[in-house]
TrEMBL record:
InterPro entries cross-referenced by the UniProt entry: LptG (IPR030923), LptG/LptF_permease (IPR005495)
An annotated GO BP: transmembrane transport
The gene coding this protein: lptG
Entry keyword set: Cell membrane, Membrane, Transmembrane, Transmembrane helix
Membrane topology designation: Multi-pass membrane protein
One GO cellular component term: ATP-binding cassette (ABC) transporter complex
Assembly behavior: Component of the lipopolysaccharide transport and assembly complex. The LptBFG transporter is composed of two ATP-binding proteins (LptB) and two transmembrane proteins (LptF and LptG).
Role played: Part of the ABC transporter complex LptBFG involved in the translocation of lipopolysaccharide (LPS) from the inner membrane to the outer membrane.
Subcellular location: Cell membrane
Membrane-crossing segments per the record: 12-34, 61-83, 95-117, 270-288, 300-317, 329-347
Name of the featured protein: Lipopolysaccharide export system permease protein LptG
Entry superkingdom: Bacteria
Family note: Belongs to the LptF/LptG family.
Amino acid sequence: MFNRLDRYIARNVLMGMLIVHLIILGLDFTISFINDLGDTEGNYGTLQVLMYGVIRLPWRFYQYAPVSVLIGSLVGLGAMASSNELTVMRSAGFSLWRILIGVMKPLLIVVLLVMAVGEFAAPRTEMFGQAWRTELQEGSAVSRSGGWQREGDSFYRFGSIRADNTLLDVNRFRYDDGRLVEATHASRAVLDGEDWTLEDVDRTLIQQDSTSSEHLDRLAWDTSLDPELLRLIITDRDSQSIGDLWRYGSYLNEQGISANDTWLYFWQKVLLPLTLASLVIIAASFIFGPLRSVAAGSRVFYGTVVGLVFKYVQDLLGPAATIFGFSPIWAIVVPMGACFALGFWLLRRAG
């Protein structure tokens, strides 16, 4: 599968991707650590902030893979272009398209690794990290993580869920004819068989002209929500696996609730291999085309600009799918198709 030429190209390209990825992860980890220091409270101190950042490394690894693939390809191929190695390869009879095949082969390794992290590692570490952080911050203000869900006349907000199905930071807001009549907060909800019990409960009853509050050690909670559905509700969409996104998107559609953001992340993950391939194509087209004689710093700059434009177009088309009623898959296909079209056009001109 890999001859000597392919191995040499793969070594340079993969090294470029690895270096760029480590730099991006290091910068993001440092910035996030500094920002999260403002959330230290309760038992959640500086050391815990650091550990939380480490727990989230698989998610960061997955999220920054596209930009690392783009800039890393520019760096690896650019280094070969600067030393005239690509020129020598073409002079030796290797066509531009044959060299491009050598660039695409190591991408298979990257795709398998990134997909494995996104499917198996990131969802589990994100769920564990959320629950661990919420539990350490217990007693503080409502956590910023978690999810909302409506059931009957009540709206719920859940902080996180542990591996033993214990819910943390449960808030319930019950309405009657559009008027808030009850606000309840429980530190946790414990599942015993099929029955939920709220623990450490503060409940406020709101009448027309007065309110009353009470604290309860335990309170039965009658709900149809099960642990599997609660995990889907609580876990951020960008850290869910493809299967979880499919199940939650289908559930929301059955409930008559818009699931565009869920389907957006679903198609983003399903089409990730093609997305990475399109970014490698655009990087190779720049090296063989307009960027073949510019400095390495300029290549990184242009690659960063292209990566940001790619991301911003996807981010803009996602909400546009809700407004204009088209499928969220187009938010992924349109920028990806534009990269393929531009890349192949530049490669044809250079070839």
